[in-house]
Amino acid sequence: NGYTYTFVQHEGNRAIHAYLNEDCVALSRNTARSHCLKIHKREKQRLTRSLSQLSSRICLTSDLWTSCVGHGFLSLTAHYIDDEWNLHAKILNFCHMPPP
C-alpha cells in the first residue's frame, strides 16, 4: 500500500489501536522507524549466523513481480535444509525495481 512510517501517526490507525487496547501507547514515526531498524539488524545478524553454520548447500532464487498499482519489485531468497531435514526459505533482499 506504500505506507510510510508516518502511518503510525494517522488518526484512524491510532483510533483502532485505542479501541482494541485502551492502554496502547501511540508511537511516533521516529520511534516506529527505530524499532523497525533494530529488528532488521537483529534478524540480519541471526540469519547471517545461521547461514554461516550450515552444513548443507544454499540455493538462491529470485522473483520479479509487479504490484496491483504497477510498481516492480525483486526479491532474492535463500533456500536450504537444516540438520533436522527442515526446508527453510529466507528473503535476503527485497527492492523496488523501477521500469527501464
From TrEMBL:
It comes from the Eukaryota. This is HAT C-terminal dimerisation domain-containing protein. InterPro entries: RNaseH-like_sf, ZnF_BED_domain_contain.
